[in-house]
Write a structure and sequence with these properties.
3-methyladenine DNA Glycosylase, Chain A; DNA-binding; alpha+beta; eight-stranded antiparallel sheet; 217 residues
Length: 217
DNA sequence: AGGACGATTAACT
DNA sequence: GTTAATCGTCCTC
């Protein structure tokens, strides 16, 4: 069996829609806090940066989304709903602000640590089922925003791309559909997941809600 | 300075 | 199926 080549930054300098399916099956390794947890990605979403109304980067750079406008291979973490962190892999060329949201995975190393970090998980399949749960398994937070996932010394690393849809020895069935929890650009089917994976999160359409009319004056 | 809302989750009925 | 939790960010005034 040939030794796998080291992942390069140029392999990640492609659009999020192209990269997302290639990340399925990839390993993300965390050694945060001196504890090893490694996850195999089973569900991701592409966010096409400045061209995508659903992206955090759509309205231009801010203090929060600055990392998205930088080079590929860096981690973009954000805080949401007042309590959860989620994680993305920045891709494409600087300025495009494309990124892939890590939505779900299975724990392949550090199961005991993952369970300790996710006490609410009723079963192994729930450990990293959902973007905030995945981030919690890997102990990701604000301090990891902007981290270089390709550095061998980083506490969070992207170990390789996934096998992809065209692997000859054992085809990997990849499914594509609408993204979860967004209210705009819902017609873009940029969520990708592995078929028959119990760790894939439930689809919840973005809540339709009329925008409150601004008082005229 | 104020307020609406969110790339969610867990706990309910 | 529904909903509370909870606060950083961003938009508006």
């Amino acid at each position: 069996m040939p030794r796998s080549e080291r992942l390069t930054r140029s392999q990640l300098a492609i659009s999020s829609v192209l990269l997302a399916p290639r990340l399925l099956g990839a390993r993300v390794r965390s050694t945060v806090g001196g504890e090893l947890v490694e996850i195999r990605l089973t569900e991701v979403e592409a966010y096409e940066g400045i061209d995508d109304p659903a992206s955090h980067a759509y309205r231009g750079p801010t203090a929060r989304n600055g990392v998205m406008f930088g080079p590929a291979g860096f981690l973009y973490t954000y805080f949401t709903y007042g309590m959860h962190w989620c994680a993305n892999i920045v891709c494409a060329e600087p300025g495009r602000a494309s990124a892939v949201l890590l939505r779900a995975g299975t724990v392949v190393l550090g199961h005991e640590t993952a369970r300790a970090r996710r006490p609410a998980a009723r079963s192994d399949r729930d450990l990293a089922r959902g973007p905030a749960r995945l981030a919690q398994c890997l102990a990701l937070g604000r301090e990891h925003n902007g981290l270089d996932l390709l550095s061998t010394r980083a506490s969070v690393r992207l170990m390789s791309l996934g096998p992809g849809p065209s692997l000859r020895a054992g085809p990997v069935a990849i499914v594509q559909g609408p993204r979860v929890g967004i209210r705009v650009a819902t017609d873009r089917p940029w969520r990708f997941w592995l078929a028959d994976e119990p760790s894939v999160s439930a689809f919840r359409p973005g809540v339709l809600k009329a925008r409150a009319a601004r008082p005229a004056h």
